[in-house]
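Marked as duplicate of an earlier ticket. Keeping the data here for the record.
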Amino acid sequence: MKITIEDIKDFFKFRDNDVNKYDFGVAGIMGGSINYSGSVKLASMSLAALRSGCGIARVIVDEDLKDAITPYLLEQTLFVLDNNLSDAIKNLDSLAVGMGWGSDISRNEYLEYILFNYKGKLIIDADGLNILSKNLDWLSNTKARVILTPHLKEFSRLTGISVSDIKENPQKLAEEFAKKYHIILLLKGPTTIITDGISTYLVDSGSPGMATAGSGDVLSGILAGFLAYNSYDTLVVAGAAYLAGLAGSIASLKYTDVSSIASDQIKCIPDAIKIIRNK
């Protein structure tokens, strides 16, 4: 089913006057490494989460990244890891992990611990997907409600199927994988496929201007923010993907498909929400 604004507009209702930040959840953004600090990337993701409506965005990094990322945080909170991963993920309604982790073996331990102990909505992206592709059995014992966000190459690593074969029937393969592992899969592409193996939604609200570094990270940030105060549901994930694509399309119109960058997409999230509401 191809998603339209009508399908998702109820997620963007006006908020009551007596609400506070705790009514809209706490989103966690966990990533980075000494070789791939991605400070701006992590900060941008947490800002995208806030722009998408969560009440609090918590950025979680190792001690050696603290000084690198602190200058880029304003509205977000910072949690510095020091053998206290359980505290870092405590009380999070959603958590996005894996961005900029690199190949450090300690990241395997992080992901395994999170999958076996975290009970919230977990978005796994980037290096987190690469780790998971070698440890798919972890999904059989996870306590988390998992959303995977691969592009074609990452999905190829997860499945062992070549990119060319995936391109021949991406929806069928996505549905089979999601159903087998009891997760929601968001397969990125010109038409993004969101499926749990039972319900499948197609989103094509993006534009060529989103073919730039960081667009996928913005999507993960939007997912974290959106899922912090919405249920674990395929349509909710599709709604977040639609919002990301619409914001990217607006950014392309403002800054052109040549000059638009990922941070422009974040700036345009409010414009995208206005369009959805007005519809």
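See parent ticket for discussion. The first helix runs from residue 5 to 8.
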